[in-house]
Amino acid sequence: MKSLKYLAMAAAALPFVAFSNVASAQELVVGAAGNPGGLAVFVAQEKGFFAANGVDVKVEIRNTGSELSKGLRAGEFDFAPAAFTNLPAALERGLDVRGIVGYVGAAYAKPTADEVVALVASGSSGINSVADLTGKKVGVTFGSTGDLWLLEALKEAGLTTNDIDRVNTRPPGLVSVLDTGGVDAIAAWEPFVTQTLNKVGGAKLVKRGGDLVCFCAYLHGNPERVYKDEKATQGFVDSIAQAAAYVRDPANSDEVVEIASRFVNNSKDEIRAGLAFWQYDPRIGENTAKAFEGSVKRLISQKKMKKPYAASDYLDSKFIDSTVKRHPEWFADLK
């Protein structure tokens, strides 16, 4: 596939980004979510991969994707991740960023990959399939990839949101809301799925994954940051790719879990169990574009977007393509 090229630099700085607050060329501030999805960032910092690739990086943790997006717009970060779930709608509204390297997910291999998401029900709910959700309360974080997955799972079962009572729940509260009987089931992602199954008596796994959506996110930055010092950007991308390879290597699992425990508020056993479902592929390719375009179509159908937004206007694969060419050993385990 040809690189998805960045077509045209913005003629003026974004009105909502305070560039004066962003670190200098070689000193980068990177936002990451406080869950195992950020492991490539955490490992790159803890293992010294950023320094080895010529960049000085400070990692800032936020609890939600919306907080990361707000931080990027406010100039708190040079780079931050965003899931494809709602990103295209923000791009249509004027957010000007370029996705340069995979953060989490397997979008390069296929446009749908969602094994990290699952539906978990209480033992007393009587829920044994998605079809049993009719008339039930389901805890889910509105607007999240888990929410999108739930909507697609309902559609697959011949149901709509009108058939259930969706209860908006912040991720840290998903376990407790099921445990206290506030809902009959939750749609969550790891490590909350494993945590729920371990801590809520009688909780049962109803459905996991199913290739309904792409649970994927990419690290991006505003064009001025990405292209002002391409050597620094390349060093950052190299670092993420090297760290992702380290995370994927089963020989490093003990150390990876130890590193994750310093950034994630979950037990090591929960982190270890959840890692079987997270995927870390930093590449950008044709399926990445298809995953993005699939999200655009869903957002248009939900009337959250008015018209299509080209994946090539967001994704720029030239940095990760360079990494793949120079360091094929970091990708030898990937299909």
Supply the CATH architecture of the largest domain. 3-Layer(aba) Sandwich
**Rg calculated over all Cα atoms:** 19 Å
| CATH fold label of the largest domain | D-Maltodextrin-Binding Protein, domain 2
* Fourth-level CATH superfamily of the largest domain: Periplasmic binding protein-like II
Strand order of the largest sheet: 7-6-8-5-9
SS-derived structural category: alpha/beta
Helix content: 25-40%
The count of domains is 2
Distance between the termini: 15 Å
Q: What is the overall number of helices?
A: 13
Strand proportion, as a percent range, falls in 15-25%
Give the CATH level 1 class of the largest domain.
Alpha Beta
Poorly predicted ranges (pLDDT <50, ≥5 residues)? Answer: 1-25
Shape verdict? globular
Strand element count: 10
* Mean pLDDT level: 90
Reading the helices and strands in chain order gives EHHEHEHEEEHEHEHEEHHHHHH
Main beta sheet, described?
A: 5 strands, mixed
Descriptive report:
There is one protein chain. By secondary structure, the chain is α/β, with parallel strands linked by helices. It has two domains: 19-110 and 215-330, D-Maltodextrin-Binding Protein, domain 2; 117-208, Periplasmic binding protein-like II (D-Maltodextrin-Binding Protein, domain 2, 3-Layer(aba) Sandwich). It contains 13 helices and ten strands. It has helices at 39-46, 49-52, 65-73, 87-92, 145-156, 174-179, 192-199, 223-228, 230-248, 253-261, 268-275, 286-301, 318-326; strands at 27-33, 56-62, 80-83, 98-104, 117-121, 137-140, 165-168, 185-189, 204-208, 217-221. It has a five-stranded mixed beta sheet, with helices on both faces. Strands 3-10-4 form a three-stranded antiparallel beta sheet. It is globular, with a radius of gyration of 19 Å. The chain starts with 26 loop residues before the first strand and ends in a 9-residue tail after the last helix.
